[in-house]
Amino acid sequence: MKKIALENRTHTCGELRSQQKDNQVVLCGWVDSRRDHGSLIFINMRDIYGITQIVFDPAENEKTYASARELKPEYVIKVTGKVRHRPDGMVNPEMATGEIEVIAQEYSILNRAETTPFPIIDNVDASEELRFRYRYLDLRRPELQKNMIVRHKTSQIVRQYLTGQDFLEIETPYLMRSTPEGARDYLVPSRMQKGKFYALPQSPQTYKQILMIAGYDRYFQIVKCFRDEDLRAERQPEFTQIDIEMSFVSEQDVFNIAEGLMKQIFKDLLDLELKTPFPVLSYDDALNTYGSDKPDLRFGMKIKDVSKIVAESEFKVFSTTVKNSGIIAGLNLKGKADYSRKQIDGLNNFVLQLGGKGVLFAKVRTDGWDSSIKKFLTEKMMNEINHIMESEPGDLLILIAGDRKKTMELLGSLRSKLGKDENLIGENEFRPCWVTEFPLLEYDEEQDRYIAMHHPFTSPNEGNTELFESDPGAIKARAYDLVLNGYEVAGGSIRNHNYETQMKVFDLLKINAEEAKEKFGFLLDGLKYGAPPHGGIAFGYDRLVMILAGENSIRNVIAFPKTTSALSLMDNSPAEVDAKQLEELGISISDFRIRNGRNNTFLRNER
């Protein structure tokens, strides 16, 4: 498609090459830097497309040269000039336009700029609070502009791929009924129906199921979701997900579509080939092998359980732990028996800060172990541990004893830390995998009831129906997560399309028929009118783009992110509103006290 020509400029600042030599051009952009060499003035002129060097030469135009001394960083200018090759030895291979420069014949200042609160450069030394306050300046930085371009290109690939797979892009409402499960809803008061409220959707979960009931077979959208929850680096009150739902599908069908989408994105965006099919791990295997249901497969260092070997040892910490149904498990840090006392203490403190009781270490030597627990173990025990942990002289063994779940979590966190600290992760390496067979339910001690591990519309595994009465906690779900480099980038499930099964799940969650009708009546009614088997997946779009852009926070790939207090520092929202607006809504503000407490949940929405 031919680009439409613009009246105010002929080219962008990243477009010119040696092929345009001697062309008359007009450029518009910002002054990135100015260098005054006495006889010549050089300006680096920047826009979102790149940088072009502009030369002000008195031999070309004395008046233009003299006035160029006024130019300062972030002035907006328009330059008319001629393209020429840079002189021999002056080519800049670091710039896409480094072979050429533009000799300015005339220019105009379109807007002047005050000194910015931080320089418009990559890796700027400025606080996040300052950058968020002046986000319009922060977004000028090439680093963030690159991220926004990655985000744009990713969305185009997604739409093209899914459209090619016969998906329809259908929008679902932003104003919906509040169903306060999972995170807290953001509520929107109604002026027309005073005293009543809409909620902003935490996920289009119920709507996409309704679309399947309506016969739309394959649906997707790139959609905003909203959750009023405590935030951190990887959470935002408003976020984006790629929402996908299909009828008449199995888990493998969903995997195939998702893998094809990932493969397309990585090929088109990074020119990398992801190997398919992706490995599949059960939830239990992921926890027992990597200490996480979001395993990073870019390096080995698998967790090994040595409980049986040391169950009868004279070391009371080990024997008592096993007797009380706990475990002893550990990691083998290959070739690091030379760790100093300070390094070992650092790992121990890391585990203590996570709520553990400490770590035991053994340095493997040619003549045996160098360890404080050596005297409590037999030679046979140490040899068997060496065998199961695949250790050899020069390795450092790290052992933790305790409750199974907590021990695995601690070792998983320690494994991730060591992978980064010891540079065990290759650059530009991407290792996706599926985690499946999640428990349908998890028991919440505080609420004294089961809650849904994913959401209450997830189908139980076929053949698990007998466990509804005898052992609900053992029911496995037809749920799955797509994990990439230690991040959950997508999650989904096969849904309950049968009314009776859905009501049985609600019963396990202690949602009675009246409450279910009140909250989800429209969906339950829909299930009675020929609902097809269906399932889907939702990608955490911000997190996926973060990985693609090589960033470590989703805030760097969202144009206007909020702080961990859900504040927008640039426009100072949320803010108080006029009393008249509140009166129109039938709302009055009373004194209130901020209460800190646990967010009671029984639902973890997709993404």
Quick overview:
The two termini are 37 Å apart. The protein contains 17 helices and 22 strands.
Give the helices and strands, then pairings.
Blueprint: E1 24-36, E2 41-47, E3 50-56, H1 62-67, E4 76-85, E5 100-111, H2 128-133, H3 135-138, H4 142-164, E6 168-169, E7 186-189, E8 197-200, H5 205-213, E9 218-226, E10 238-247, H6 251-270, E11 280-282, H7 283-290, E12 304-305, H8 307-310, H9 316-323, E13 327-333, H10 341-353, E14 360-365, E15 368-370, H11 379-388, E16 396-402, H12 404-421, E17 432-436, E18 441-444, E19 449-452, H13 467-470, E20 479-484, E21 487-494, H14 499-508, H15 513-527, E22 534-540, H16 541-548, H17 579-585
Parallel strand pairs: 3-5, 6-9, 11-17
Antiparallel strand pairs: 1-2, 1-4, 2-3, 4-5, 7-8, 9-10, 10-22, 12-13, 13-16, 14-15, 14-16, 17-20, 18-19, 20-21, 21-22
Helix pairs in contact: 4-6, 4-16, 5-15, 14-15
Task: Report what the structure shows.
This protein has 607 residues and is an alpha+beta fold. It folds into three domains: 94 residues, Nucleic acid-binding proteins (OB fold (Dihydrolipoamide Acetyltransferase, E2P)); 224 residues, Bira Bifunctional Protein, Domain 2 (BirA Bifunctional Protein, domain 2, 2-Layer Sandwich), CATH 3.30.930.10; 126 residues, Gyrase A, domain 2. Helix content is 29%, strand content 23%. It contains 17 helices and 22 strands. The strands form five sheets. The protein has an eight-stranded mixed beta sheet, sandwiched between helices. The chain has a five-stranded mixed barrel with strand order 1-2-3-5-4. Helix 4 packs across helix 6 and helix 4 crosses helix 16.
